[in-house]
Amino acid sequence: MADAARSNSGLVVRLLRYLGDRAINVLEHIGTLWFLLMESVSWIVRRFTQKRVRLGRPAMIAQIVRVGVSSVFIVVLVSGSIGFILGLQMAPPLDRLGQVELVPNIIAVAVLRELGPLIAAIVLVGFAGASIAAEIGTMVVGEEVEALEAHALNPVRFLVLPRVIATVVSLVCLAVISNIAAIFSAAVMSKIMLNISWVTYYNNTLAQVQPRDFITGLIKAGVFGLLLGLIACGNGLKVTGGAAGVGKATTSTVVESIVAVIFADLIFTTVFYALGLG
Q1: Residues 100-132: tens digit of each pLDDT
Q2: From CA 117, how far away is CA 121, in angstroms rounded?
Q3: Residues 218, 233: one domain?
Q4: Which of 79, 121, 178, 254 has the fewest CB atoms inside 10 Å of its own CB, making it the most exposed?
Q5: Are residues 147 and 33 in the same domain?
Q6: Residue-number span of the structural domain to which 33 is assigned
Q7: Which of 187, 167, 184 is nearest to 37 (CA)?
Q8: Does one domain contain both 256 and 231?
Q9: Same domain as 17, residue 79
């Protein structure tokens, strides 16, 4: 009995130690992201308060092109497919109720509030998030970040800030493109398969949506882009162990970004519903 009790006690201790280590790692990671956010905000403030501070517009534009423009085709393809599928899935139950003409109403609200920003964020996570983490991680392994610091150049200013701004701007623009692609594909599907005319689809969409539906979606997209940029840069800067560390940072970025985007979406949806905006 005594041996069994000691064994159980040792198991509990090991479990508590594991959970404690995981909790410390999570809090440390959140602290790193918070530091990057505050440091980025401070450089933006300095840009408008100190004339000598420059944020590197060419670098930001290059990152926006690499992160955002390169993702347009994939976002259009995925969002268009989702809009087509969503319309087909909703048509049978609405048809049984004699309300198949309400397909445009439901799709418009679902896409503008939720699916457009979320699809764009998930696509950008896979397309750009992993790339950013791998790029910065490779710089860390190659001691390029140390070289910047040796020349008194702040890595957050020259590496993190352009990429964070690029992910925020790109994701807001991609959310708009995603909305258009999903609604247009659903309209095409409705015309071809449900015999809903273009005029009916257009009028029902305008009758259902409000400016707040579009604005709340863009707010979500901006925050999703911020989370993606911070997580990718944070994981890249923490790389250790050479190529294996770069691969681990890339995988962690994809997983953490998707989880963060989903939880942020949950929080936003709950808050907007409580405020009467959802």
Answers
A1: 888 888 898 889 988 999 999 999 988 888 888
A2: 6
A3: yes
A4: 254
A5: no
A6: 1-53
A7: 167
A8: yes
A9: no
Residue 217 burial (10 A CB sphere; 0-12, 13-18, 19+): buried
Both 31 and 69 in a single domain? no
The verdict on 49 and 60 lying in the same domain is: no
Whether 15 and 145 map to the same domain: the answer is no
Count of structural domains within the chain: 2
C-alpha 101/C-alpha 211 separation (Å) is: 22
Q: How far apart are CA 133 and CA 230, in angstroms?
A: 10
pTM of the model: 0.87
pLDDT tens digits, residue range 22-53? 788 778 878 888 888 888 888 888 878 877 77
Cα–Cα distance measured from residue 75 to residue 84, given in angstroms and rounded to the nearest whole number: 14
